[in-house]
Amino acid sequence: MRKKQERPGGLAGLAIKNLFRKPATQVHQFGEEGIQKGYRGKLLYDPSSCINCVMCMRDCPTGAITIKNFGTKEDKQMHAYLNMGRCVFCCQCVDTCPKKSLSFSSDVLLASFTRESLEIEL
Amino acid sequence: MLLSIFNVLVFPGLLFLGAYSFVLEFVDRKVYARMQSRKGPPWYQPLADMLKLIGKKVIVPRNAQKFLFAALPTVSLAAVCAAFLCVPVWGATAVTAYQGDLVAVLYLLTIPTLCHFLAGYNSHEVYSTIGAFRTLTQMFAYEVPLFMAFLSPAILAGTWSISGIAAFYAVHPLYTLINLPVFIVSLLTSQSKLERMPFDAPEAETEIVGGALVEYSGRYLAYFRGTAIAELTAIASVLAALYLPFFTGIAWLDFVLYLAKTFVIVLMMVLLRATMARIRIDQTLKFFWSILTPIAMLQMIVNLLLRGGLGL
Amino acid sequence: MSDRNQNERNNKVVVPIGPQHPSLKEPGSFKITLDGEKVERAVVEIGYNHRGIEKACESRNYIQALYIIERVCGICSHAHTLCFCQAFEELAGLEVPRRAHYIRGIVGELERLHSHLLWLGVAAHEIGFDTLFMYTWRDRELVLDLLARIGGNRVNYGVNTYGGVRRDLEPELMQDILHVCDLLEEKLKYYADLALTETTLIARLKGIGVLTPDDVRKYSAVGPVARAAGIEGDVRVAEPYGVFKEIAVNVITDDHCDVYGRTLVRVKEMLEAIRLIRIMVAQIPEGPISVRAPRKLPVGEVLSRVEAPRGEDIHYIRSTGTDMPDRVRVRAPTEANWHGMSHMLEGFQLADVPIIIAAIDPCYSCTDRAIHLIGDGINQLTDWAQIRALSIEQYKSRGIDPGSIKVREF
Question: N or C terminus: fewer CB in 10 A for chain A?
Answer without folding.
Answer: N
